[in-house]
Amino acid sequence: MILILRSDANEEEVAEVVRRVEAEGLEAHVSRGEERIVVSVIGNDTEPVFALAHLPQVEQVVPVKHPYKLASRDFHPEDSQVRVGPHVVVGGQRVVLMAGPCAVESEEQLMTTAAAVARAGATVLRGGAYKPRTSPYSFQGLGQRGLELLDQARREFGLAIVTEALDEEGLEAVAEVADMVQIGARNMQNFSLLRACGRLRKPILLKRGMSATIDEWLLAAEYILAGGNFQVVLCERGIRTFETRTRNTLDLSAVPVLKYFTHLPVVVDPSHATGAWQLVAPMARAGIAAGADGILVEVHPNPSEALSDGRQSLTLSDFAALARSLGAVAEAVGRSL
Amino acid sequence: MILILRSDANEEEVAEVVRRVEAEGLEAHVSRGEERIVVSVIGNDTEPVFALAHLPQVEQVVPVKHPYKLASRDFHPEDSQVRVGPHVVVGGQRVVLMAGPCAVESEEQLMTTAAAVARAGATVLRGGAYKPRTSPYSFQGLGQRGLELLDQARREFGLAIVTEALDEEGLEAVAEVADMVQIGARNMQNFSLLRACGRLRKPILLKRGMSATIDEWLLAAEYILAGGNFQVVLCERGIRTFETRTRNTLDLSAVPVLKYFTHLPVVVDPSHATGAWQLVAPMARAGIAAGADGILVEVHPNPSEALSDGRQSLTLSDFAALARSLGAVAEAVGRSL
Amino acid sequence: MILILRSDANEEEVAEVVRRVEAEGLEAHVSRGEERIVVSVIGNDTEPVFALAHLPQVEQVVPVKHPYKLASRDFHPEDSQVRVGPHVVVGGQRVVLMAGPCAVESEEQLMTTAAAVARAGATVLRGGAYKPRTSPYSFQGLGQRGLELLDQARREFGLAIVTEALDEEGLEAVAEVADMVQIGARNMQNFSLLRACGRLRKPILLKRGMSATIDEWLLAAEYILAGGNFQVVLCERGIRTFETRTRNTLDLSAVPVLKYFTHLPVVVDPSHATGAWQLVAPMARAGIAAGADGILVEVHPNPSEALSDGRQSLTLSDFAALARSLGAVAEAVGRSL
Amino acid sequence: MILILRSDANEEEVAEVVRRVEAEGLEAHVSRGEERIVVSVIGNDTEPVFALAHLPQVEQVVPVKHPYKLASRDFHPEDSQVRVGPHVVVGGQRVVLMAGPCAVESEEQLMTTAAAVARAGATVLRGGAYKPRTSPYSFQGLGQRGLELLDQARREFGLAIVTEALDEEGLEAVAEVADMVQIGARNMQNFSLLRACGRLRKPILLKRGMSATIDEWLLAAEYILAGGNFQVVLCERGIRTFETRTRNTLDLSAVPVLKYFTHLPVVVDPSHATGAWQLVAPMARAGIAAGADGILVEVHPNPSEALSDGRQSLTLSDFAALARSLGAVAEAVGRSL
């Protein structure tokens, strides 16, 4: 932490700051400039040091350390790999394709999709049994029946399953079927749910909140890691900006930024980010080119009749075409499908 | 809902859209322009109509109706009033002051603050027993002991209590003590928790999510109303923007916008929005001038030693001065404290 | 400036940073923590010190000083007052009402409006002769004829005139008629135009760019001040955010932030910010309550027939009502109309 | 344009809207729903129709047509190709590399860089002679001397030149040397400058404004096209969001969105967008994968001593490595360098 004092702070005011910092068991180094006095605090940032911002002689408080620890590359310099189901590894040399419908709607819909995405090269099947919906009047998912269908699809097609848990109560039921539990963007700072994920021994796919900074996202991951669960995969799915031609703005720069600061694997969801099926393929390719470890894509046998997110779902044949083109991009950046 | 078709859509393509709309039990009116064909859909918007965006002849889908119902002024034209505890009404002629520490830290801290804010004119005491914290390593609140202290403060000073519930599990414990339960910004779209609030028979203070549009916020309220709980107060607390001189950007225009679209009362929290105690008083005054039904302010006997949010807390005497000035502003807009 | 080095930087790497800082004629103080090494740079920030961010041992570069000087309260602690025309002072005890049509459309429209706003208490008439329009196909203003009509309105009603200059070429013509020259949001970082304003000896109304931080805005003002023209009034007119229920998000917190950092007067434009006439009156009142020195409002004798911005213009009688209510708010915060 | 009326609008109020629309020479079709009445306006949107939003019976005005014409694919369905200098085509099968220093600093710096980028495969040299700087105290470029050096580099290395013009006055001087004139982000809505570009017969590189929507950007291009200059290349360079780990947020989704709506070529600038050299290579690769026609990258022989933007410049060898990797990505998406 660095405290920037007003240049007209007198000796006693500077001494007060130093005293307060030392009272927290930390060290304070004072540097005097013509226009500002800088106090560098050595040791862990603590809340009471932040509160010194309230002293009149303190003009600004600048945090220095990354506030996360276990998620940081300082703590774990090598890339982490997360195993999902018996056969899939996220974060290794191979790029992982996760695909499936937004919501599980029926046996036919799910099995048709699962068969097609498996054939096209996906190794993880996505599909919501419990859906977080902005409106209470929208379709909320098939619930337990949806989980059963996902389980059936796993057995029939050998795909690993990722599906969302909305709350602590549902977490257990979801974790019984899922090979990886998704925590959605709206729950990224549902700290009770994150703590419950920390107690789980299943991989977690942690989506970025719509207005979460990268640091806040890593702190959300830290809640899970701090609970003892190190199997966390981050998923960039777009942030909220002023641009309305896309549903959200896919922040692909987050991929190399994360690769720099954290050891956790990162995947990209171009479907939710763009909200338009026409944009999914180019943005999936861009995600892999930016260094992502996988992509998460919505696929539906008949998008114009989907119960949710039809406008951003790929058809089965469009997904197969995308998968083919992704192989070439992966190779161009030294990876494979 | 309005569907905008490509101008080169042929007869059969237009007919397909009409057929699909009618299959949903809705009516379709076609207007042909030189450059676009417009299909107005009469009746309730349904998900399958949205999904028509996937048809190649459909260029854009424009929702027309407000997606919320019970929260709308169309449904309930008069202002709603929400009773908090035995004596306080939010949404009436009197502007309500809600004040107290960010977190309950100790008996002395809470009682000192409660006494002072009551004396200054506040009628509701705020204070967190359970704190949602961005970092797992920050102070997380006193929990049950915090609730007991709030209960004690209510008895001693006759203040109504508002405090936050973080999850369904904690909701019951909080509701036993609180006169109004706060749902924080990070939980605004925690739909399981919102549904649980709908089953409660206590007023809910629903804070706006950091990146929630006004429509999404009203849909979150709709989850509570749809559950049968009509005692909802909305709280504007700043949205996330690019500006970093304030912690968030207080969106005061939301106050008159809400007053236009909804009957629910609206209060303003200038402390969390600005993140700087120096800005709290002017923004509290601006909030009342904009038409808010109350303000929610952080107050601490010794902000530079607070365990959380010290930098944005008012001292006891600064709060008393603010309260005095708010009376004059309230009168200037035809209200009173 | 503060340089934060990686904790594993070795002696030679730290020494290299110190050497480079000293080569710029600055002093460097090194503080070593367990996790980071902090180098405080004493003296003026220079571009080459910023570029040290490129060294592998440098993790972060944190600017400390305000980058503006003449605009800063450090330089000029008292509030500045800007005289506009013979009778109006912006930044004094009296709050200033500036009102008029978005664009000058005709003699009748302008004179009717001028008479009405003068009667209601406005002392400055606004009205665009040259209009910056997002589309090349929109009405671009009456140009020179518009300036002549503004001049006529000044003579007839004793109002000071504020009108926009779009480019250096037009600046001279505008400055001949205007008592204050407006630089619009889209030109806030048109540095050639700002420099030309610095050479002018007329007050400048500098609108905030739609995505300008407060610091960038003050640096834009600094361009004008550095040219020798100290008569600058800042105008908050909304920033771009994700919220679409208003055209922009009026950032009223900017008012007290500016009052803290700069001596320049600040006015608020609720018309452009909200884009909806229904929101103008409450946000004008909120602006005054937040501490603004004046408001700038669009008024039109017949808004539903305006050639631009009709949807956000007040009628003559709505403006008169607003003006009455603003007096009470001004008094509530210790000022007058 | 679509007008949405309140459901309780009476016959006379609906008739008034229809009358007003017809008075503009347009057609109006009325569709009545239970909750809203929709009036579809057939013909060109005009400002007076927008102004009908002011009528009390009008709840919302929804524009339908793209507001740009010449920039639209409706007008020109095939991809446009823009020739820059004698040898370079932007928008064809080959992806174009544009590289060079942020600012021209000296003969040695520019020639060293030009030689290296030419050798690595760049065909366009970038470099600022006139620099728009946020602060009046920053280095503002070498001006005319910078242009002379660029001219010399062109002759020596056979590179086409792109450099920025800041104002109408400078435009002529710049256009004499430049093969393509850059209009920077801050000037994207400097309409006088755009009009002057429309009169020029040189290609224009139009950077996206930091808070410009894609539609506004295309309307800015429309100003140039409407003046008769059809040689416009669009450059995505990041938009302003809340995320601070990157300088701006590179909006790569804009690339396929633009490819859908316009025929103009699109290039990507990952240097300004990210503000960090470590992120430039992955984002350049992502840009090509997303479908961009070229990239614009900052390169400096010694970035840690650059006079501007050192922290985001690549070294000569890092650029050479990037260029090699871009070839593979280009091939993966069916293009070549």
A few lines on this structure:
Chain A is of the alpha/beta class and 337 residues long. In chain A, 36% of the residues lie in helices and 19% in strands.
Topology record:
The structure is a homotetramer of 337-residue chains.
Chain A: E1 2-6, H1 11-23, E2 27-32, E3 36-42, H2 47-51, E4 58-62, E5 82-84, E6 88-90, E7 96-100, H3 107-120, E8 124-126, H4 144-157, E9 160-164, H5 168-177, E10 180-183, H6 191-199, E11 204-207, H7 214-226, E12 232-236, H8 254-261, E13 266-268, H9 270-274, H10 277-289, E14 294-298, H11 316-332
Discrete helix count of chain A? 11
Q: Tell me the span between the first and last alpha carbons of chain A.
A: 43 Å
Percent strand of chain A equals: 15-25%
Helix content of chain A: 25-40%
Largest interface by Cβ-Cβ < 8 Å: A-B, 52 and 52 residues
CA-based shape of chain A: elongated
Poorly predicted ranges of chain A: none
Radius of gyration of chain A: 23 Å
Tell me the major beta sheet of chain A: 8 strands, parallel, barrel
SSE order of chain A in H/E notation?
Answer: EHEEHEEEEHEHEHEHEHEHEHHEH
Number of strands of chain A: 14
What integer is the average pLDDT of chain A? 93
- Kindly report the spatial arrangement of strands forming the biggest sheet of chain A: 7-8-9-10-11-12-13-14
Multimerization state: homotetramer
Structural class of chain A: alpha/beta
